[in-house]
Here is the input.
Amino acid sequence: MPVTLAPSRSPMTKVSLRNLGAHKLRLFLTVLAVVLGTAFVTGSFVFTDTLKKTFDQIFSGDSQGVDVRVSLQNEASLGVPLDLADEIVDLPNVRASIKYAGGQIIIIKDGAAVQTGGAPSLGQPYLPPDSAIGQPIELIEGRAPAEPGEVIINESGAERAGLSIGDEVEVLVPNVGNFDLTITGTYSLAVDVGGFVGMQFVEEQALELFSDGSHVSRVDLAAVDGVSQEQLRDEVAELVPDAYNVQTGAEVQAQQQDELEQNLSFINYFLLAFGAIALVVGTFIIYNTFAMIVAQRLREMALLRAIGASRMQVSRSVILEALVVGVIGSVIGLFAGIGIAYSLRVLLDVFGLGLPGGPLAVQPRTIAVAFAVGILVTVVSAYAPARRASRIPPVAAMREEFSSAAESIRTRTIIGAALAVPGIALLIWGAQYTGQPGVTRVGIGAALLIVAVLFATPALATPAINALGVVAKPFGPIGKLARTNAMRNPRRTAATAFALTLGLMLVTLIGVLGTSAKVSVDKLIDQGVEADYVLTGPMQTGVPAGVTQVVDRVNGVDRAAALTFAGGFINDMGINGSSLTGGVDGMLQFNMVDGDTNMDGRTIIVDEGAAERFGLSVGDEVEIERPARDGSIEVTVSGIFERNQVVGAMMLSPSAMDALIPPFVQTTVAVMVNVDPDANVEQLRSDLEEATERFVVVQVMDREEFKGQQAQQIDLILSLLYALLALAVVIAILGIINTLALSVVERKREIGMLRAVGMHRKQLRQTIYIESALIAVFGATLGVALGLTFGWALVQTLRDEGLTVLAVPWVQVSIMLVGSAVVGVLAALWPASRAARTKPLEAIADV
Here is the structure.
């Protein structure tokens, strides 16, 4: 009569916990997979929450005490006219006011620009305590500026620039020129931003440097006692034209916070995407691990069933183990995520990217997400193996020849094929479109195809490993045995390989997009830029004012022209473009569809897309509304050209540009230089560098160097993406190690038998090396194939955005395929060594 277990789950709980304790290595590898995925998700939340909290404090300080703010709707405007500002501040319910004029500056120290990374470097007006709204700045040392030429600087900015009170410093104001200033004092900020530099001038000089002298950037107002923000806002709005924003202080802060959340959402989604990748890859490892654990414990579970354990108790024991693993992994992952967030902030600060300081923000939501994700993924991954184990009849499970590998994969294969058909169709269909419609279709198709491959991988594994086994033939019987082992359990092989498939699919996809972008940019510059030299400046400020005039006077220069950015509205729809002083002939090349590039008077040429979108033809008169929405200009369409990413959707004549955007606020993105045919090119380069030396931030490049600069920016983004994707590849490698280690345990008796009939330890190690390499190459080949397919489809959808050439990084692809075999061997080192130490007699006697 069988022994019936007590109703209490205590005996099964003890069995589960003791089983975990008895397999510490297996526990470690499984927990590690959960930790890596959970840590990345946690780290992304902590990092962005910390930034948001700190920036909220900054914005609160910026609008502290402000009841109403009158500001620009668009930066491409001269600002609020001083006469209007005077009318506003004279309203009876205004207690105090600030007429603010500020802008970008560049500090020059020892002939070089002081680097701030991504943080702003600003010039601002100094407001005495009796004029300030809210809490005035606190002077740490020295005195306030008293006359033009004197400035104070924030304490961390002074430290960064190596400046002290009394120092003379050269400052470049991009739209004005270079100035010599004297440091009279330093001040502190409520919340310091790494890299931020803030110089404060007397109000008179700030107005001179950062406006045209008759406008200010904004007007801040404080209401008299008893008047609400809304009441004062409504009074001001009656006086101010619609071209300006009139907001309460609360609305200003809310808008700043909304804009911050939108900007940070990219970082958050970016990090969360890679956290999701890590979790998906980790899920396969966890699932694979529990599937193998169940397979190895079938006889043990059968024995438990035979002595009275119910199916529910057996499945619960497996899920309990998963729960323990999930809890441990989530706890460690939470702390690891906090460490990642801290390390990321320190790393970015080292590179001077201008992130604010302050304590890390760990929200309750972050803790909840860490535990929910870690535990849920682990338990769900273990559920299917647990359910499968509970359905196995005890007598069948105790038979030696019983194996879960015998389960049919037919249903999975049919599902995979059924999903692959619409997935491929959507990819091809989406590739016919551009922009959001195309990307959406391709994205859905890619998701379907990935799931299809997930289901069909076991069916693909056997023929693929059999084909790849050709490379194992030189190893004779050892190679044949390795190939057989890899094909024996297609489910296990597929789950192991698919983790690597996902990682290398993403690496290949990004490689295709990056290489295509670089080749497309090269082609664009070769076909679109005719200038011999291109002078550029920092992205935030562009080329400083005066560079074009200085360069044009250099001996040997035939012509220098400033390329400026333009934007506006046609029929309430935005349009961006540019303008080139003196016209485009000899500087930029256009493939004209109709008309010509002769732009006299107020004329524009537009690309085919803009012509179609706005219904424009050569000779049409069109009204362009200014970016600031403070008026419009009428221009004549003189030509239509093929899309040209260098200049945007429209090209304005110089007179049309000056009418659309005031010269003082125009941003020069580059200066094009043509060389006199009789000039010495090498000498001219030296002369150009010498002429622009005082502007510090200007780079002189020929066309090849200009292409190299664009490629360098793409490479920087790719490096960041590859660094993050390395996490998925590392997890995949751990998965291979984990699977092989468990496979060695599962095949202990088989290994013992091989050793007993004469197989040497070296031969056994080689067998596992080859088996691992075959699985890794199979997964890598599948990943590369998917990555190339998705890369092709995405490049097609982005052809209107400048990706006009599909380029495959074949060298990188080849390296990845060869590297995957190396990875497979390296991943097998420890499991193979462990297998080689198996004692034959003990293994054969193992039950």
User: Anything to note?
Assistant: The chain has four domains: 1-68+265-407, 69-259, 430-528+703-847, 538-697. The first strand starts at residue 68 and ends at 72. The chain has 24 helices and 25 strands. Residues 1-68+265-407 form one domain.
